[in-house]
Design goal:
Elements (H helix, E strand, L loop, with lengths): L5 E6 L3 H16 L3 E3 L7 E6 L6 H15 L4 E6 H5 L1 H5 L6 E3 L7 H4 L11 E3 L20 E5 L1 E2 L10 H5 L3 E2 L2 H13 L4 E5 L24 H8 L7 E4 L9 H9 L6 E7 L3 H6 L6 H14 L4 E8 L6 H13 L4 E6 L17 H24 L5 E8 L5 E6 L4 E5 L8 E9 L5 E5 L8
Parallel strand pairs: 1-2, 1-3, 3-4, 4-5, 5-6, 7-10, 10-11, 12-13, 13-14, 17-19
Antiparallel strand pairs: 8-9, 15-16, 15-18, 16-17, 18-19
């Protein structure tokens, strides 16, 4: 096969996937490939997949068809979590030429020249997950004003609903020195905000590799990492993407409260406000600990934004259990919810559990919590109307507007001013608009908030 000249990428799923896609894209560029939009004709299309929901297969097929509509003779490569979990199924999707597992995806350039359209099925190169035992650093860089910086990968937790350990392997981390070096590189690229990402970033410190039968020694903890990152000049903001409540320690909370660069925003997965469900999920805390973490954050940082993940319709969740979760969340001083409808995932203990909840009921519970989330977000936003907060400005999907987030994650919308994009400026929060976001006014027009 002649060396392709252009490559396009499409990413499904989490911030971690975005960081890895961006790094793989730079690998292609370093080897002479030109990158184009996924909506344009290309010689190669790379699809980075997710496996969190049961729509992964359907979504993957849709994206493959989209790619081939743009360029029918293009080669299609599928990587990511879904590729590791179900490589054979993906290889049988019409148009897929190569499927790479977790241990192979960062070696994608080694396999490109061997691609062929001569077979009905795509080539599968997906080792057992234990082969994914090295940490490969990555960070995103593109049209965003922020960069997703990967600091950790894999997970040693055994939550009964989760396929991530099967898709990404055991917990492993970058080193503090390497993360700090990447943060400096990102700063030199003109990025103002870094979002720290991983599968279980609070577990940071498990070294750069996982050796079979050995427990890695923690050379540094997450608190050590963020203390060093706080010293990095050129980055105005660091944001913690998500951290388990049992790993969100008092020391971390107190550090963020007095930090120069870490913003007052925590996203902590709860999953259920019912201890019975938490036990069945094999979560490592009870709801009482979660409430304690929220209380501590709000005592020290009343202005802090707190986001919550929650799963509805988990096996055995009765109506009474769900209402207990609803009441618990309603009473918590949190800012918004990410609500997930439970879906059975192959090879997970939860898929074999009794007490399956009717799908219609799962959707009804999801809708109830989504409405509660909007009420929580509106209440949180209302507290800051009339105040002045720093906003990092970025492009909006409406070309006449620009948007941005305050330090404490309030989304604002304003008429576009090209000159302020990718700048952090003080704004007065005026009112909540019809989109549920906040209208604002810029103060001092171009005085940057450090």
């Amino acid at each position: 096969m002649a060396t392709p000249k252009t490559v396009a990428f499409h990413t499904l799923g989490c911030k971690l996937n975005y960081s890895e896609t961006s790094s793989i894209e730079r690998m292609f560029e370093d080897h002479g490939y030109g990158t184009v939009s996924f909506k344009e004709p290309a010689d190669i299309y790379v699809i980075n997949t997710c496996s969190v929901t049961d729509f992964a297969d359907k979504k993957c097929r849709q994206i493959v068809r989209q790619a081939l509509r743009h360029s029918p003779e293009a080669f299609v490569v599928v990587i990511g979590c879904y590729a590791q979990l179900k490589p054979k199924e993906i290889s049988e999707i019409p148009g897929v030429d190569l499927v790479l597992g977790a241990a192979e995806k960062f070696r994608i350039l080694e396999y490109i020249d061997d691609l062929s359209k001569s077979t009905d099925k795509g080539l599968v190169l997906a080792s057992e997950i234990k082969a994914a035992n090295n940490f490969v650093n990555a960070f995103s860089f593109g049209d965003r004003t922020r960069s997703f910086l990967k600091v950790q990968d894999g997970c040693d937790y055994k939550c009964t609903f989760c396929t991530i350990p099967l898709a990404r392997g055991k917990s492993r981390s970058d080193t503090v020195e390497s993360v700090v070096a990447n943060a400096h590189k990102i700063a030199e690229m003109g990025v103002n905000e870094i979002v720290l990402t991983g599968v279980n970033i609070g577990d940071f410190g498990n070294g750069t590799a996982v050796i079979e039968g050995e427990r890695p020694k923690k050379e540094a903890l997450f608190i050590d990492l963020i203390k060093e990152l706080d010293k990095v000049e050129g980055i105005k903001r660091f944001r913690i993407s998500s951290i388990e409540p049992n790993l969100c320690t008092k020391e971390i909370i107190e550090f963020v409260a007095q930090s120069k660069r870490f913003v007052p925003h925590f996203h902590m997965p709860l999953q259920s406000g019912n201890n019975k469900q938490l036990r069945m999920m094999s979560r490592r805390y009870k709801r009482e600990l979660y409430a304690e973490r929220v209380d501590l954050i709000k005592q020290i940082m009343p202005h802090c934004c707190i986001g919550v993940d929650v799963i509805v319709g988990f096996p055995g969740e009765t109506k009474e259990d769900f209402l207990e979760t609803y009441r618990f969340i309603n009473e918590l001083d949190i800012s918004y919810l990410h609500v997930f409808t439970y879906s059975e995932r192959a090879n997970t203990p939860a898929a074999e559990m009794d007490g399956k909840v009717d799908m219609g009921e799962r959707k009804r519970r999801n809708e109830m919590l989504r409405i509660l989330s909007e009420k929580k977000r509106h209440h949180f936003y209302e507290q800051f109307i009339g105040q002045t907060r720093p906003v990092l400005f970025e492009k909006h999907k409406d070309t006449k507007l620009m948007s941005g987030f305050t330090d404490n994650y309030i989304k604002i919308e304003m008429p576009l001013e090209e000159s302020v994009l990718n700048n952090t400026l003080p704004v007065q929060l005026v009112s909540i608009n019809g989109n549920g976001h906040v209208d604002a006014l810029i103060f001092d027009n171009m005085v940057s908030v450090e």
